[in-house]
């Protein structure tokens, strides 16, 4: 971890009482990368080699969305009534213990029965997994001060990318040198080890006490010729409209915080690291209410407008009002954007159940070739993520999101004709680059359209639309492929992704 500490050295030194939590978070994501690059990446490939059809893989993709829709809000309410540290740890244990069952499957069931066992396990493990998704983000917010979350999220994303790349390549070599299914059992066993060691790090995370939190980076200075004070935020002076204190620096922090929502395996969004068991639930984290965010106290003589709630994703989607569904919201500009994003997510998930089947049954790729593709994908996600802040600063989140979605259409389109290693790697390169744009900018684009005083209700609509798109896409995609063929379906879904991206650019 010293290498990453030197590469991502913060502008100001990390206070000593923060270091323990920060190191635990680094090791947490590093161990999770062992799961992400191995077992999570190859479970659908394993199911395809066992003879799973597109409908089975579609059900595997839809399972987390179904569980999330049923259990997300109850899990959030349960966690509100309990201390966050130990419940998060035990939900992690109960969810991730199921990875051990993957190792034992060949000893218990025949090939076709193993596929159905994987689907059932996916449903069951996502019940505690949904609570884990809700609780971990809350624990993260409690363990990391707001001004450090962007930095920590960026380092975690970098660690995840590097470990995932290495694990994908190593897993490919294991699958080559060991007979089927022993190679997969070894890969699944390593994933289980990574999952359990990640739980150990979660156990040692501690919410910061109030007296441990350093003073905010917000300070005030006297301005000549005026009696008012002007806020200085991260070194920049805001002189216009003092009640509007959002700076680009804070937006970049938000961007990194939003990226952390899916830092558990972002690549699965286009189907390469398709951990259909745990990751969709992690992606759609339900977060703590805004009531939990500390509000700076007004100083004597200071205008009321200067009292602000710190920005962050902590208050977005859970708590009072999170379960309220107001239909009049759909008649606002947010409703139009919501429709466009649901169209994108539908086009995103329609082809995901088809990728593993196509790679195994049509392209006849070996596990080594697939591991090369996974590694290439994650390399370009890492490279693109490094440049994301500059792109969003120059072009804005809407354009970056729209261009990324358009570029994401190349993944299923080129996959349909990737009959050799070279073109397959090009497909993965473009897919990773596209996802680095979409994954990094989409949530900030969403935040720009959500009223500050009504975030929970608006994001409840987004969460509902997202899970509906996942469920519908995962089930309808295989059916359409059965009607028109795998290759034709991939081309059709690529066109739908292109149209979704163009619609975001035109009407978003």
Structural class, by secondary structure, is mainly alpha
CATH class: Mainly Alpha
Q: Give the second-level CATH assignment, the architecture.
A: Up-down Bundle
Major β-sheet annotation: 3 strands, antiparallel
Distance between the termini: 40 Å
Radius of gyration in whole Å, from Cα? 22 Å
Strand proportion: under 5%
Strand ordering within the main sheet:
1-2-3
Following the backbone from N to C, one meets helices and strands in this order, namely HHHHHHHHHEEEHHHHHHHHHH
CATH level-3 fold name = Growth Hormone, Chain: A
State mean pLDDT (0 to 100 scale).
76
Global morphology: globular
Q: Going by CATH, what is the homologous superfamily? A: MFS general substrate transporter like domains
Helix count, DSSP H or I runs of 4 or more residues: 19
Number of E-state strands: 3
Low-confidence stretches: 216-324
Percent range of helical residues: 55-70%
Number of domains: 1
